[in-house]
Write a structure and sequence with these properties.
This protein is mainly alpha-helical and 282 residues long. It is built from 9 helices and 5 strands, in the order αααααββαβαββαα. Helices cover 47% and strands 7% of the residues. Helix 2 runs parallel beside helix 4, helix 3 runs antiparallel to helix 4 and helix 5 crosses helix 7.
């Protein structure tokens, strides 16, 4: 039928135009980010080697902000990744930034950032009428500390969530009064890792301009809610939650380590509580 064919053609054109605009927006925002953070990088992105481009993308997904300084929505970051994928494919780039292992770093950065944003209330939640219980909040609070630790210290030699001790991460203050967390865990005899001890690779600093997303504030809140008996250096870092607890209680956690199975399912739990669709793993 001619009318149906014309309508189908019109819808196809509209969809193509929408896809083109989406690709252009992703490319423009990524280029603006590169100019602001890496001003010496002037190459077209389709000629940048995969290792360098992967690092740029990981930085973009973690640090990029909108023009008003606010963070992007989780879905926006995923759309940007898809838009850049289309652009690179058009220019016959040799890798897929969404699938290939050469871009694992940026893929993980995007996944972790989406989880972080969802935990902090960003994104369109499909079940708005389903309010989080206080128990859910506790799970997300602890999950956020786990996420902060993994992002900041996951690259450090000897970092293992299931064996992490309270003394492995220390709260410190610089000479100028800026608080930071420092990885003090075992180096497992790695000479290169030892040389990094005390360097910026083993530290994460407070974000004073954004206390709601500050890893140091999350750590201090978690420390305050731990039982005093579990604040010694060799105590397990992650503790199980008390079965019955309320906001008035000073301590929200047991004197018992979080089980390995629950720790292994941390990302899945965060996604379920934060209404993030899709299959996610640690």
């Amino acid at each position: 039928v001619p009318d149906q064919d014309e309508r189908a053609a019109e819808l196809s054109r509209e969809q193509n135009e929408k896809t083109i605009r989406s690709t252009q927006t992703a490319l423009r925002n990524f280029r603006e980010f590169l100019i602001s953070k890496y001003p010496s990088e002037t190459r077209e992105i389709y000629v940048i080697p995969c290792k360098e481009l992967d690092a740029y993308l990981a930085s973009f997904f973690v640090d990029a902000r909108q023009k008003d300084g606010s963070e992007y929505e989780p879905n926006s970051l995923a759309n940007y990744q898809c838009g850049l994928e289309r652009y690179l494919k058009e220019h016959r780039y040799g890798y897929s930034i969404t699938r290939d292992k050469e871009f694992k770093r940026s893929q993980e950065a995007l996944k972790q950032k989406q989880i972080e944003l969802r935990c902090k209330g960003k994104g369109n939640k499909p079940h708005k009428s389903m309010k989080l219980t206080f128990a859910d909040e506790l799970i997300l609070r602890k999950s956020l500390v786990w996420l902060n630790n993994t992002k900041a210290f996951g690259h450090c030699t000897g970092f293992h969530g299931s064996t992490l001790k309270w003394g492995d991460i220390r709260l410190r203050v610089t000479e100028t009064g800026l608080e930071y967390l420092e990885w003090m865990g075992p180096d497992n005899g790695d000479v290169n890792a030892k040389s990094k001890r005390g360097g910026t690779d083993s530290r994460v600093y407070a974000t004073q301009h954004s206390p709601q997303t500050c890893p140091v504030q999350d750590y201090k809140e978690y420390a305050q809610r731990r039982p005093p008996a579990m604040r010694y250096e060799d105590a397990p870092f992650y503790l199980s939650i008390k079965p019955v607890v309320n906001l008035a209680a000073l301590h929200w956690y047991n004197c018992q380590a979080l089980g390995k199975n629950k720790l292994a399912k941390m990302v899945k739990t965060m996604c379920e509580k934060g209404n993030i669709p899709g299959r996610k793993t640690n």
